[in-house]
């Protein structure tokens, strides 16, 4: 993974990161790649999973904040 790859993934919305992660998992499960290609794909999958987690954490925070405001009212 290059810095450019990571920068690109950092711009992905949740759905795009999730969809690409699903494709990465499918490709890894199919096998047939050499070790270097498998590791590169796995690293991309890790970066995509991290991006999904960032989106989910942000959504969770927004829900918690909204519930907190509601309780204060």
TrEMBL record:
Transmembrane segments in this chain: where? none
UniProt xrefs under SUPFAM superfamilies: XseB-like
Gene Ontology molecular functions: exodeoxyribonuclease VII activity
The Enzyme Commission number assigned here is 3.1.11.6
How is the subunit organization of this protein annotated in UniProt? Answer: Heterooligomer composed of large and small subunits.
NCBIfam families in the cross-refs? PRK00977.1-3, xseB
Question: What name has this protein been given in UniProt?
Answer: Exodeoxyribonuclease 7 small subunit
Query: What gene does this protein come from?
Result: xseB
Main enzyme class: hydrolase
Q: Which UniProt keywords apply?
A: Cytoplasm, Exonuclease, Hydrolase, Nuclease
Pfam families (UniProt xref) = Exonuc_VII_S
* HAMAP family per the UniProt record, alphabetical: Exonuc_7_S (MF_00337)
The record's subcellular location field reads:
Cytoplasm
Q: Which reaction does it catalyse?
A: Exonucleolytic cleavage in either 5'- to 3'- or 3'- to 5'-direction to yield nucleoside 5'-phosphates
Annotated Gene Ontology cellular components are:
cytosol; exodeoxyribonuclease VII complex
Q: Which family does it belong to?
A: Belongs to the XseB family.
- Tell me which Gene Ontology terms the entry assigns under biological process: DNA catabolic process
User: What job does the chain carry out?
Assistant: Bidirectionally degrades single-stranded DNA into large acid-insoluble oligonucleotides, which are then degraded further into small acid-soluble oligonucleotides.
Look up the domain of life of the source. Answer: Bacteria
């Amino acid at each position: 993974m290059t810095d450019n790859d990571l920068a690109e993934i950092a711009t992905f919305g949740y759905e795009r990161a999730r969809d690409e992660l699903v494709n990465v998992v499918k490709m890894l499960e199919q096998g047939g790649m050499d070790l270097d290609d498998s590791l590169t794909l796995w690293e991309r999958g890790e970066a995509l999973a991290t991006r999904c987690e960032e989106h989910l954490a942000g959504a969770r925070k927004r829900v918690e904040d909204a519930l907190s405001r509601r309780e204060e009212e």
